[in-house]
């Protein structure tokens, strides 16, 4: 989480309301916020503060977690109520890890559905990104490449590593993702910027340099 407490509270509410949710919740705060720490104490979550770097934050959560399966969620995620059960079933049938489908929260306009469909196709033939609720058996994570210590595209090497190591695939359910950044930046502009960033990363431009550009144009 990074300066997104309302979304974090909504996520924790969602996890708390699940009948058979996660056994442990670890929150890695990139803002060292006393308010965030207080919320975590009230919710009996493990709280850790770290410099704002998404890859380092996610890896720190993996190291701190004690469960057999790790489920990585961004603060503004809206996972399905039975998400933890779906993960358990995947692991029971031999998956080492996987990811959820992508869908936007709110009213389902045609452009939301079209973009969600393209993102889900990309995830199947390429790399699912972190906002799709990646999960992995804990012992497998520590044998894999892990999250890269970078502010962007931190999951790419991890996903490639997991695909080589065993069965890694989609869960038949979707995680809701807030459309607020697309609504703020404009749907076409935001989508094009995201694709250009991905192409630049594949062309060899460092995630650190891309992150500076990303934040300079008001993304995040």
From TrEMBL:
First-listed, main subcellular location of the protein, grouped into a coarse class:
membrane
The subcellular location is:
Cell membrane
A GO cellular-component term linked to this record:
plasma membrane
Query: Keywords of this protein's UniProt record, alphabetized?
Result: Cell membrane, Glycosyltransferase, Membrane, Transferase
TM annotation in the entry = none
List the GO molecular function terms: glycosyltransferase activity
The residues the entry assigns to the signal sequence are none
According to UniProt, the name of this protein is Glycosyltransferase 2-like domain-containing protein
| UniProt source species | marine metagenome
């Amino acid at each position: 989480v990074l300066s997104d407490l309302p979304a974090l509270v909504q996520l924790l509410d969602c996890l708390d309301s699940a009948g058979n949710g996660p056994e442990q919740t670890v929150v890695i705060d990139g803002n060292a916020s006393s308010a965030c720490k207080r919320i975590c104490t009230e919710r009996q979550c493990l709280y850790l503060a770290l410099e704002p770097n998404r890859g380092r934050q996610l890896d720190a959560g993996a190291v701190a977690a004690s469960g057999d399966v790790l489920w990585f969620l961004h603060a503004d995620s809206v996972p399905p109520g039975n998400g933890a059960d779906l993960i358990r079933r995947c692991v029971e049938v031999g998956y080492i890890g996987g990811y959820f489908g992508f869908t936007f929260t709110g009213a389902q306009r045609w452009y939301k559905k079209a973009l969600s469909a393209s993102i889900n196709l990309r995830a199947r033939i390429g790399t699912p990104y972190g906002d799709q609720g990646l999960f992995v058996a804990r012992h497998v994570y520590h044998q894999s490449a892990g999250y890269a210590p970078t502010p962007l595209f931190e999951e790419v090497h991890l996903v490639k590593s997991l695909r080589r190591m065993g069965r890694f695939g989609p869960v038949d359910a979707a995680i809701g993702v807030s459309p607020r950044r697309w609504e703020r930046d404009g749907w076409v502009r935001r989508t094009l910027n995201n694709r250009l960033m991905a192409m630049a990363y594949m062309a060899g431009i460092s995630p650190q340099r891309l992150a500076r550009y990303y934040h300079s144009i008001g993304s995040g």
